[in-house]
Specification:
Rossmann fold, alpha/beta, seven-stranded mixed sheet
């Protein structure tokens, strides 16, 4: 059967219903964020659970997230961390960062999350210097799509062999889809460029899952591979 818009919407609803179970804090977080004046932007519940699963599969102890916003995806990631683990999440808007810090504390993960103020392009190079190459188990990209290709060199340096680089909106967003012609949307072109960089990089095994708006997952190969 061909995938139609109606079928896609029904499939996404099914995934959230079956795989997107959330506690009350997560279920009400975006309502509270919108009431506080934040934009209604967050991964779906099923994508949040998928991120949680990826962090567990990677045995992640250190995670870097680019794009905090209200902290929804960050909570899923932080809850996957073992005791002593840490999430560093990057957010340029002070109002969003402050709200997310309160959300992390209310969710019981505040002690393992650090919100770094700044853009991905500002903070990622600093983290390479501070943490060192190969020091991170998972990098999650969900910020300015046209900057995705510029995030890639820093993300691939930060992540350890066997670790993951994951990017949301690998296939689309609210006003564009990956099958449209290049050159009309900077976000489209940025996501497409990142997909192609990851797929062509000999140091990574990469693929893309058509869940919600697409999740690109790239695993850095072991040195022996």
């Amino acid at each position: 059967m061909d995938m139609t818009p109606t079928r896609w919407t029904a499939t996404a609803a099914y995934l959230d219903a079956v795989f997107g179970e959330q506690d009350d804090h997560l279920a009400t977080l975006m309502t509270r964020a919108i009431e506080a004046g934040l934009p209604d932007i967050a991964v779906s519940a099923s994508v949040g659970r998928f991120l949680h699963l990826l962090a567990k599969l990677a045995n992640a102890r250190t995670i870097v997230e680019v794009g905090t916003l209200a902290g929804y995806s960050g909570i899923w990631l932080a809850r996957a961390l073992p005791e002593g683990g840490r999430l560093i999440t990057i957010e340029p808007v002070e109002k969003h960062a402050a709200f997310a810090e309160r959300a992390f504390a209310d969710a019981g993960v505040g002690g393992r999350v650090t919100v770094r103020r700044g853009t991905g392009l500002e903070i990622l190079p600093k983290l390479v210097d501070e943490l060192g190459p190969g020091s991170v188990d998972l990098v999650f990209l969900d910020a300015v799509k046209q900057e995705y290709p510029e995030y890639w060199p820093h993300a691939k340096t930060l992540v350890r062999h066997g670790g993951l680089v994951v990017a949301d909106n690998a296939l689309g967003s609210g006003d564009w889809w990956i099958g449209e012609p290049a050159g009309n949307q900077a976000a489209h072109d940025g996501a497409d460029a990142l997909n192609r960089l990851a797929a062509a990089d000999p140091a990574f095994d990469a693929s893309c899952l058509p869940i919600r708006e697409g999740m690109m997952v790239a695993r850095k190969r072991e040195l022996t591979q």
